[in-house]
Structures are given as C-alpha cells and as structure tokens.
Amino acid sequence: MVKTQDPKRKELKILVPGSQPMVSLLGDRDELLKIVENAFKSSILVRGNEITIRGDEGELETIGRLFEELLELLSSGMVLAPESVEKAIEMIMEEGELNPTQVFTDVLISRRGKVIRPKTPNQKRYVEAIRSNTIVFSIGPAGTGKTYLAMAMAVKALLSKEVGRIILTRPAVEAGEKLGFLPGDLYQKVDPYLRPLYDCLYEMIEVERFSKYMEQGLIEVAPLAFMRGRTLNDSFIVLDEAQNTSPEQMKMFLTRLGFGSKAVVTGDITQIDLPGGQKSGMNVVREILTDIGGIEFVCMDERDVVRHKIVQEIVRAYRLYDDSRNDHGRDDRD
Q1: Each residue of 228-239: pLDDT tens digit?
Q2: Model pTM?
Q3: What is residue 107's three-state secondary structure?
Q4: Which of helix, strand or coil describes residue 137?
Q5: 266-304 pLDDT, tens per residue?
Q6: What is the pLDDT of residue 327?
Q7: Which residues are within 8 A (CB) of 164 and not within 5 positions of it... i.e. 6 or more apart?
Q8: pLDDT at residue 318 above 70?
C-alpha cells in the first residue's frame, strides 16, 4: 500500500501563554474544546500548553483565528462559557465586520459578577446605534435582547449622569389601555403589564437603590397611555412591545421627546395583538421616518437569539412558515 500525503492537509500549532490556565480556554472536562471540535472537521490535539490542529489549510486558518480571539477574550478578563464560544465560532465563520473581541468586550453593566454586554454582532451594532442616535427602533423576535440591552443602556446612562431619569413604558393592549375597571390602585392595575420591565431592572440595580430611585422619580415605569400631554426632558425613554401601538399612539409617544433625551423603541412585528386588524404604529413608522438624521432602525433575527439554543430553531421555523404562507398568498394573487 502506497501512502500519499494530501497537500491540502496541514498542521497548525498554537502555544498557549503560561499566564492563561488551559482549563479557562478548554473548559471543565474539555467542555469548550468539544464545542470547537464539533464545529469543524479538523482534528485538535492538546498536550500541555500546546494545541495541534490538523486539517485543510482554509479551516486551519479559521480555527487559528478562533483561538486567537478566545485567548484575547481571556486576557480581557472575560470568563468563557459554552454560549460565548458558540457565538464566537459563528462570528469567525461568517467573517463579518466585527470579531468576537469587539463584540464581547463592550461591557454595559457589571454587577455582583453578572456582566451585561452584547453577544452578537447585531447586538453590538444596536448598542452603537443607541450611543450615536436620538431615537432607535429595534425590530426582531423574542429573545434577541432588544428590551434588555435598551434598559441596560438606560441604566448606564442614569448611573453615569448622562440623563436625569429613566422612563419605561409599554402599551397595555390586553386592557385596551382602559385600566379603570381593573381592581386595586393604579400600581396594582398596571403591574401585570409592566412586570417584565421591573424584572429586568432588578437584575441591573441593587434593590435599595432601585427603591430609592423609584421614590425620587428617577425611574418611572408606566403604561403608554400615561405619556399623553407630557414633555420628557433629560430622559432615557424605552417603549417596549411597540408593535402593539396604534399609529396615533406611536406619533403621540415620539412627539413627547424633549431636550437632552433619547428614546429606544422595541417590538416584534410578527406578534401584533391589536384588535380588528388595526395597523401597527411600528409598521407605519418604518414607512415614515427612514430618512431623518438621528433616527436609526436595527433589525434582529434568529441569529441574535440569546436564550436556549432551541429558541433559535423555533424562531427560524416560524419565520420559514410565515415566508412560505406569504409566498403562497402571492402565488394565489398572481
């Protein structure tokens, strides 16, 4: 038997600096290494602090860049987790404008070991859009970090005194914005609709500080109907679930913006709950405000989902289903 060497198969050696424990790079019981191995066809062998990779030349270059990025992230103080390694692999393979280090090292809030940061290139673009614009619209499915990152940016702006207060609002569609018939006082009436916003805030601010800010009016959480007639100066305003606003409500909200304020509007246009086929203010505003400076639209998709990986698959399946139904509808009309 004559053995021939495939000229395309090469070998790459990576020497890991002694300052970086291999377990930080490879994970407990090689958990992180296995994720890398499953993503590529090349063989990866680890001996001491040396990693040897054998495979096709093109793939070796990709894996080499991946390990460079992971080592850079470790040097920055980031603790690698399975989710971050998976996202880093996606970024390296897509060869986009942003690399994992640029995305993951943008720390928005760090509290008691919990770090809030963008986790995908699109989330990083979203954060940059908020920094550089007066109004940002974020459109995408559940789990893409639209509301969470907006609130993190709001909290960061408040703590650094860039704004004087945070205002969080969402339409109470299920109650038709007519809350008077519900039992209890004002806060008891609106609490079920605003609870998700409170849950986010509790992760970002200490309980004592949060209570103090609420008492002082530095943080306000209220239904969208309560914004009417106000001018919101020196504020960071987040409108959540904006797909459930009417065009009139959206116009009312956007015209509340005062001096020194910034607004982020988030919504999922595939989950509109407005009654009677009513038009969504989120859809209408996309047709009206596309050419105004200081306003930016950021669209998310299933690649930006940062919940359980199966959520990505669910979002993708629903998108394909909706696309196929829309295609059939066009065929019927044709």
Answers
A1: 999 999 999 999
A2: 0.85
A3: coil
A4: strand
A5: 999 988 888 877 899 999 999 999 889 999 999 998 888
A6: 62
A7: 158, 218, 233, 234, 235, 260
A8: yes
Contact 169, 237 (CB under 8 A): yes
Tell me the C-alpha distance between 10 and 57, whole Å. Answer: 6
Q: Tokens at residue 77, please? A: 């103080």
C-alpha 149: how far from chain center: 6
Q: Can you tell me the distance from the alpha carbon of 325 to that of 328, in angstroms, rounded to the nearest whole number?
A: 5
CB 198 within 8 A of CB 207: no
- pLDDT-derived band at 184 (thresholds 50, 70, 90) equals low
| Count of helices and strands (H, E) across the chain | 12, 11
* Residue tagged 């280090």 (tokens): 101
Q: Which of 80, 103, 69, 96 is nearest to 31 (CA)?
A: 80
Average model confidence (pLDDT) across the chain: 87
Taken as a whole, the chain contains a residue count of: 334
- Among residues 166, 122, 132, 171, which one has the least CA distance to residue 280? 171
Q: Which two tokens stand for residue 325?
A: 């139904």
Hey, CA dihedral for 157, 158, 162, 167, is it positive or negative?
positive
Report which DSSP code applies to 232.
B
